[in-house]
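TASK: fixed-backbone design
INPUT:
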């Protein structure tokens, strides 16, 4: 394995769509995701990825903002590692890389949401030192 962590170039953002579809159970079409990612890259968004040589195997969106309760912050979003690469410590290494990367940008805190049903992720984030601060509510308009 030749693992590389990096920020994907904006012109290659569409490469993450298949992984994000796996995370969301293919509920979102590639066309919808392509449009949304095209808009996202114009905002305070970057996308960290994991490559095994030339194969894209992991993804984590990074949304930057300043919040009154946490200061300069980044929200980790749509975190996903391909099934074949789980259980090998890549999540820990990926987040260590992310912590280092965003710290150099002056970020003070990292936040994230995880699906209620994704119990393995809850254990992972607890082990990473995350605490539950509140609930995330969503209303479709």
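OUTPUT:
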């Amino acid at each position: 394995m030749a693992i590389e962590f990096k920020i994907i170039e904006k012109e290659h953002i569409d490469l993450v769509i298949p992984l994000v579809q796996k995370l969301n159970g293919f509920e979102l079409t590639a066309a919808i995701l392509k449009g949304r990612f095209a808009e996202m890259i114009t905002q305070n968004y970057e996308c960290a990825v994991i490559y095994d040589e030339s194969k894209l195997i992991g993804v984590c969106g990074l949304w930057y903002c300043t919040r009154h309760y946490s200061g300069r912050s980044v929200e980790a979003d749509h975190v996903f590692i391909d099934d074949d690469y789980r259980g090998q410590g890549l999540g820990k290494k990926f987040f260590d890389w992310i912590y280092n990367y965003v710290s150099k940008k002056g970020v003070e805190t990292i936040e994230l949401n995880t699906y209620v049903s994704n119990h393995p992720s809850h254990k992972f984030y607890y082990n990473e030192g995350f605490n539950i601060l509140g609930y995330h509510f969503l209303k479709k308009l």
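COMMENT: The chain has a mean pLDDT of 94.
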